[in-house]
Amino acid sequence: MPEGRPIVSDCSSETYHICELLDYYLQPLSIQNPAYLKDTYHFISRIRGRSIPASSYLVTADVTALYTNMHINRSIEAVRSIFKEFPDHNRPDTELLELLEIALTTNEFSFDGKMFLQICGTAMGKGFAPSLANIYLRSFDAKALSYNRESLAFYGRFIDDIFFIWLASSVELEAFQDYLNSLIPGIKVTFTVREILTEFLDTTVYLSTDPNDYNNSIINTQVFFKPTDTHQLLHASSFHPRHTTKGILKSQLIRFKRISTSYADYSNSCEILYNVLRHRGYSRTYYRDLKYSVWYTDSSARKSTPKADSIWPIVNYYDTMGNALGIVMRRTIQHLPCARNVRLISAHRRHRNLKDILTRSRFP
Questions:
Q1: What average pLDDT does range 233-240 have in this prediction?
Q2: What is the CA radius of gyration of the chain?
């Protein structure tokens, strides 16, 4: 029998808004950790291009059932500790800790006609769960980083997924795993050790020889597809505006470009995707042109734009006349003095159809 765990939606529950409030205060504190990884792009920016000894090990680790093994009392103490470390006079610490205790100790749900109460861990659907998990493992990360600084070339964690580069022997690596599994009761990690390439998040991390020093290797990345990924994106013949399907394809290619180190890695990922999309009505010509356009024109660096004071939507019906009218309106509004610090956004609305005439979604 495979492992199972109850997953219950927290939407519209009694503690839903409490969880939103808790996450508002916990999320900024949860990232105060040198091992914190925000997302794939953050991970790539920290490791890609690094030169490491050729004998290094690429290690990924998974924390087994993190959410359900977080002891409630320890979770509350971890939050109390981080509140003391980062004081804020405008933050109601006492009240937040009381709300956290309520949210952790009143997770009741029904299954198979019986009522259950969660007595260990936090519900997976709670809004503050990821932030609380990061805070819960702060001491774990600190002890891991200070274990043997000469053996760790890099250590990062994304919630319950860990990646690090080990420079010492495999025997010392086993001792490191035993050490980590003894830090927090209930928190167990399982190492996956590779020498040339490994998978982490949605990337494949692999090593290539350093041209400046043949005893070292350079860290490269490419896109990783899970074996169960069927790439079932929106069908091109779906009744959506044409720019919708074009935007879906472009967004995927931009992601591939930002993850891939070389053009060969990027091209291989694009071909894997298009081998599925060509059966879903996507144009080969458009795909080919977009593939080259994205690689040579998209900038991987995210440029920050000045924040506009307000947004000015330009709404027209979605048809030929509406599109042409929207272009003219945008050009005219841009020259108005009142639109100097305003961000213009083109939006569309559909025409009233037969369904709208025959049916009603609202009743008097």
A1: 86
A2: 26
Query: Is the pTM for the entire model greater than 0.85?
Result: no
**Angle, CA 293 vertex, CA 291 and CA 295 arms, to 5°:** 70
Of 44, 50, 48, 37, whose CA–CA distance to 255 is shortest? 44
Helix (H, G, I), strand (E, B) or coil at 22: helix
Nearest to 66 by CA among 131, 14, 10: 131
Segment 347-351 mean pLDDT: 87
pLDDT of residue 181: 93
Q: Which has the higher per-residue pLDDT, 213 or 329? A: 329
Task: Convert the pLDDT of each residue in 115-156 to its tens digit.
Answer: 988 888 888 888 899 999 999 999 999 999 998 888 999 999
Q: Where are the alpha helices (DSSP H) in 169-236?
A: 170-180
CB 76 within 8 A of CB 97: yes
Cβ distance 158 to 37 under 8 Å?
yes
Closest CA to 25 of 106, 71, 85, 83: 83
Q: Return d(Cα 327, Cα 346) in angstroms, integer.
A: 9
Question: Alpha-carbon distance 334 to 314, whole Å?
Answer: 12
How is the beta sheet containing 189-194 ordered, strand by strand?
152-158, 161-166, 57-63, 189-194
CB 328 within 8 A of CB 297: no
* CB contact at 8 A, 136 and 75: yes
Q: pLDDT: is 231 or 263 the higher one?
A: 263
Please answer whether residues 162 and 156 qualify as being in contact, where contact means their C-beta atoms are separated by less than 8 angstroms.
yes
Tokens coding 267: 């091209």
List, for residues 262-280, the tens digit of each pLDDT value: 999 999 999 999 888 888 8
Name every residue whose Cβ is closer than 8 Å to that of residue 100 and which is 6 or more positions away in sequence: 22, 75, 76, 79, 128, 132
Residue 117, token pair as written in the block: 């109460």
